[in-house]
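Figure S4 source data
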Amino acid sequence: MKGQILKENGALPLILPTLIVMAIFTVLPLLEGFRLSFTNANLLNKGAAYVGFQNYARLFTDANFWLAFVHSLILTVAAVVLQLVFGLILALALKQKVPGIKFFRSVIMASWVIPVAATAVMFSFMVEPGYGYFNILLNRLGIHANTYWFGSLHLAFPLIIVLHLWRNVPFYGIALLAAMQAIPETQYEAAEIDGAGPIRAFFTVTMPGVRNMVIVMVTIHVLWTFNNFDMVYLTTGGGPVFATEVLPVYLYQEAWSSYTTGYASSIGTVMFVILMIYFIVYIRAYQRQEE
C-alpha cells in the first residue's frame, strides 16, 4: 500500500508540466471566455462592461442562433449514426479474407489523413457546374444537372453530411476492424454450434465484442462534429441563406465579422454546457449498463 502511494506521489512531478500546459492553453481560455460572456466586449471598442445575463437572454430571441443550433444537432446525429452504420459495414468487409484486402486496408485511410482544407477544395471542384464530376456523371446518366451543389438550398446541407461520411467512415472501419479481430474465434465457433447464423452471430458475438470501441468512437465524434468548424466554413461559410449555418460558424461570424466577442463567448459557453451535459449523461448510462 505504501509502495503504491509512493509510486503515485512520485509520478506527480512527471505529469506536472503537462498539467501546467493544459491549464495555460485550455483552462484559462475557457475561464476567460466564460467571463467575457457576461460583458459587452467588442473588438472595435476598448474595455468591456459587465452586462449580466443580457447576452444569454439575447440567445433565446435570436432566430439565427436557434437555426444554427438545430443544424448542428441534425448534422451531429445524422453524421455520427451514418458513420457508425457504414463503419460497421466497412469493418465487416475488411475482415473478409479475399485477394487484395491487405492493400485495401492500407489505403482506406487516405480520406481521413488528407487535410480538411484539401478535402473541401476537392469536393467544391467536384460539384461545380459545367466541369464538376458529379454534374458530368448525372448528365451522362440522362439527368440534367448544372448547378453548384454547395450553393443549393436543398443540396448543400446533405452534401456537408456526405463530406463528413467520406472523411470519417474509413477511421470507423479501421477502429472497428481492430476490435473485431480481438474477438476470440472460439466465440464464433460456439455460436455456430448453438445454431446461430451470420446475422445472429453478428448481434450476439460481434456487437458485444466491439461495444466499448463503439462507445469511444461515438463519444469522440459527437464532440468533434458538434464543434466542427472547418468543413462548413471552407465549403459554404454557413450559406446559402443560412442553409448550412452551424453553431461554430455562427460563433466565428459574431466574433470576427460582427466583432461582438461578448455575445460570441456566450454562444461558446452554451456549446460547452450542452456537450458537458451529453458527456455526463452518456457516461452515467454506460456505467449503469456495466452494473
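Figure S5 source data
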Amino acid sequence: MTDLEPIPNPNPASIGLVAYRDQHFSEPLLLDCGRALEDWSIRYETYGSLNENRDNAILIEHALSGDHHAAGKYSDADPKPGWWDILIGPGKAFDTNRFFIISSNVIGGCRGSTGPGSINAKTGRPYGMDFPIVTVRDMVRAQERLIRSLGITSLAAVCGGSMGGMLSMEWAIRYPGMVRRVMPIATTTLQSPQAIAFDEVGRNAIMRDPLWNQGDYEPGAGPAHGLAVARMMAHITYLSETGMVQKFGRRLRGKDRLDFTFDIEFEVESYLRHQGQSFIDRFDANTYLYLTKALDYFNLADGAESLDAAFASMQAKALVMAFSSDWLYPPKQNKEAVAAMLRAGKEATYVEIDSDYGHDAFLLEADEISKFIRAFIRD
C-alpha cells in the first residue's frame, strides 16, 4: 500500500539529440572475485543540467539487456529513442528541467564500458573468458568512481528496474551518505533458485553453440544461435500468461490453418524468434554470460547477519514498486525488501501496480510509474 498521492504527468517533451561519453580510470578496481581491473572505462550519458549545489543528480540503472542510452536519440534517423525515454525528459517523471540525469553502462557490459569484449592491454586481444567475474556490488563500486569523477558527492535519487533495482539498493546500503532517495522497481534482494535456473539454461544455450569456441570469437561472429535461444527463453519470463493470451492467443502467423510442420505457425513463435534475432544484433554473448552470473550471485544481505541488518546503514527514503503479474520478481519479493527496510527503522513505501505486462511492465507502464515517481521526488 502507499501513502503517496499520485501527481498527474504534464505534457511531456522529448529530450532531443544526445551523446554518450567515456570515462577512463587507471586506478585498479578491486573486485569481489579477488581480481582487479587495471585500466577500465564506463560509458555514460547525461540529460539536463547539474545545479550550482551539485545536488540534483539522479542515477538511472539499467536492466540486464539495457545500457547507458536511456533517453533521446543520437540522430533524427534513429528508429527508437533510449530505453526509458518515456520517463526521462522535460516534464516527464525524471524532469530534466529540475534534475541532472545520469545513466551508465555497467562494467561487464558490451556497450562501451569495459567488459569481456574489450581489449585486454596485456594481450592486445579481447578479454573473452579471461575477463574477471563481476558482481552487482562491483558494478556499484565502479559507478561510485564515475559519480565522484563528475564532482558529485550527493545523489538526489537512484532508480532502476530489475537488475537496475538491485543496483539501486546496493547503492543505498554501500554508499548511504550519497543517496537521498532510492527507487527499486520490479526487483528482488536475492536471486531465486527459479531465476538462477532460467539463467543457467540461457548460458548453456550459448556455451553449447559451436561458434562460442570457449568465448574466443571475433566480433559479429560468435554464437548467434545460442544467444538467440537464450534471449527467447528469457523473454518468456518477462511476459505474463494473461499478457501473452491477450497479445497472441493461439493465432496463426499469416495463415488460417495448420501446416503440420516445424516452421513458424503461431504468432507467439514469430514474436520470440524476432526477439532473439534482434538481440544478437546488439548484444554480446560473453556479456550475457557475465551479467546473468552477476544476477545469480546477487544477495543483498551477503556479509550481513540478515536482510534487516543489511538495510541498517541505509539513510535514503525508499519507494519500491512491483507489478501484479510479474512472476520473475513477483510482488512478494519486493514486499520483502520493504518489510526489511521498515524493520530496520527506515522510511519506505510500497506500491503495487496492477498490470498484465508481467516483468516488462517497468518498461511499459509509463503513466502509472510516473505518477508515483513524481510524487516521491517532488520536494
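Confidence is low (pLDDT under 50) at residues 5-11. The first helix runs from residue 136 to 149.
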